[in-house]
Specification:
Number of domains: 3
Number of helices: 10
CATH topology of the largest domain: Rossmann fold
Helix content: 25-40%
Strand order of the largest sheet: 8-7-6-9-10-11-12
Oligomer: single chain
Low-confidence stretches: none
CATH superfamily of the largest domain: Vaccinia Virus protein VP39
Largest sheet: 7 strands, mixed
Bound molecules: S-adenosylmethionine
CATH class of the largest domain: Alpha Beta
Distance between the termini: 45 Å
Shape: globular
């Protein structure tokens, strides 16, 4: 097979897009991935990284541009690691995302299912959350905030971001001005010295700002809070102490140091969302997906299990629409479960909705363990276990239960295999699976499709200008 070496310049036609939007140039059967090259273009690129079967190359020149190529809106595009598709039209972005889902389902999942067109609701300034590392500007040594350059930990200084509204630009200005004026040091990964690590902010009705620091005290914090309050009335400021040399942004907890936590408008409901709780980043798309999930369950006559349930926004919507259903939700992050419990209580849903705080895998195992116990010891188990769809013990010990639908919305790594095996074994009737990673979704659907028909696959453009995509799938037991 023909191969290339680092430093080689290659020239050729881009035959397709890869999963992160890179163009693929083939030299025989050898694939060279070229970020920012567009299908159909003739390009020249310099090889940056080469392996036996594939290489990565940096685009030098577009000799014949594609009609899908456009001028990126953002001046940081290409250096900042945030967006990877600003250089193509939105229509082209949607085609790339749909093809990613189709390819993953076919190649990883072995599934030949129809994928709907990607639902597009907005294009720019859609993100409600920003997380920025602190760094120093190379030339001036001034404190800056920015995104990490792709594959590095070097901060690209940023004044604004096209995926966030004007609020992010103001926030960056206020925080960096404060840090520079007061000479507050930036954390250095190598030495472990310095204070400021990250700013994490969520912009809903009001702004919440968390300063992640390598210290138990932050100098001139009151000044920062006042400066923020002047621009963002009602702001809440939190500190999270993180002294570990880790890529995880938050420390163990966050401490409210300024303002009062308030309910925020979150589509159908108002709710408090703590900084460490997960919230979908695109409000419009979040609401559209929740609506579709509820429509899929509208005629389901049974109970609901929801795994990876976050702050319970979807849980509450399902519960208000399915008035007869009992719902059990499982979520690992304690602050999210606190938020969910408060929401259920405020909506009067707490009698029918039980929000369990824990690892989904442990939850499933605990029910399985209960099943095993009864098999061997004929013990009397709590109703909670006997009525669970995961209870696999003697059938006469089972509490009569209604059919159960399972809602899954795991993080990028997808579901544990044993969770899926248990769903199959427990004969869950219907599964609605929401995923932000087509690859792990496809891997999981391959397991589930032994016992389920994949009836619907609808991608949603939760992350415009990037190659990421959210997918909702509906599965019905065969
Ligand atoms: C993609 S989010 C979805 C949250 C929620 N469905 C929503 O729409 O906001 C995944 C959630 O799973 C939680 N999570 C991650 N690993 C978990 C596990 N092993 N067991 C339970 N929850 C987990 C995360 O804390 C996060 O809230």
């Amino acid at each position: 097979m023909l191969t290339v070496a680092v430093g080689d310049v290659i020239e050729g036609e881009v035959c397709d897009f890869a999963s992160e939007g890179e163009g693929i140039v083939k030299i025989g059967s050898y694939a060279v991935f070229v970020p920012f090259a567009v299908k159909g273009e003739i390009i020249r690129a310099r090889v940056r990284y080469a392996k036996k079967d594939y290489a990565f190359a940096d685009l030098i020149e577009v000799e014949k541009p594609s009609a899908d190529r456009i001028k990126p809106k953002c001046t940081y595009f290409g250096t900042c690691g945030g967006c990877d598709l600003q250089h193509v039209t939105r229509e082209c972005q949607l085609k790339i995302k749909k093809a990613n889902v189709e390819n993953a389902l076919k190649k990883t999942g072995g599934l030949d299912v129809e994928v709907a067109d990607v639902v597009r609701l907005n294009d720019w300034e859609y993100r409600n959350k920003i997380a920025l590392p602190f760094g120093y500007k190379r030339k001036t040594g001034r404190v800056t905030l920015g995104f990490y350059e792709k594959r590095t930990h070097s901060v690209v200084p940023m004044k604004w971001c096209a995926l966030h509204g004007e609020w992010a630009a103001k926030l960056i200005q206020i925080v960096t001005d404060w840090a520079n004026f007061n000479h507050i040091s930036v954390y250095d990964e190598t030495s472990g010295q310095g204070i400021l690590r990250h700013v994490v902010a969520r912009n809903l009705d009001t702004l919440s700002v968390t300063l992640v620091v390598n210290s138990d005290r932050v100098p001139k914090l009151a000044e920062l809070c006042q400066n923020l309050e002047k621009e963002f009335s009602g702001v809440c400021v939190y500190i999270s102490e993180n002294r570990k040399n880790t890529n995880v942004i938050f420390g163990k907890s966050v401490k409210l140091v300024y303002g009062k936590e308030k309910k925020q408008n979150l589509g159908t409901f108002d709710a408090v969302v703590s900084p460490m709780s997960f919230l979908q980043v695109n409000n419009d798309v979040r609401d559209a997906i929740y609506d579709e999930v509820c429509k899929e369950l509208a005629n389901f006559d049974g109970d609901i299990l929801e795994f990876y349930s976050g702050v319970g926004l979807l849980t509450a919507q399902i519960a208000t629409r399915l008035k007869e259903a009992n719902i059990t939700s499982v979520e690992i992050e304690p602050s999210a479960v606190d938020n969910a419990n408060a929401l259920m209580k405020s909506l009067g849903l707490d009698k029918r909705v039980k929000c369990v705080c824990g690892d989904v895998l442990e939850y499933v195992k605990s029910i399985e363990k209960g099943s095993e116990q009864t098999k061997s010891q004929d013990e009397d188990l709590p109703d909670e276990i006997k009525s669970s769809p995961f209870y696999l013990g003697e059938s006469e010990k089972k509490t009569a239960r209604k059919p159960v639908a399972l809602v899954l919305d795991p993080p990028r790594k997808g579901c544990d295999k044993s969770v899926l095996d248990c769903a199959i074994e427990a004969k869950i009737e219907k599964i609605v699976y929401v995923s932000c990673n087509p690859q792990t979704l496809a891997r999981d659907l391959k397991i589930l499709s032994q016992s389920y028909d994949v009836e619907r696959v609808t991608p949603f453009d939760m992350f415009p200008q990037t190659s990421n995509v959210e997918v909702m799938c509906v599965l019905q037991r065969k």
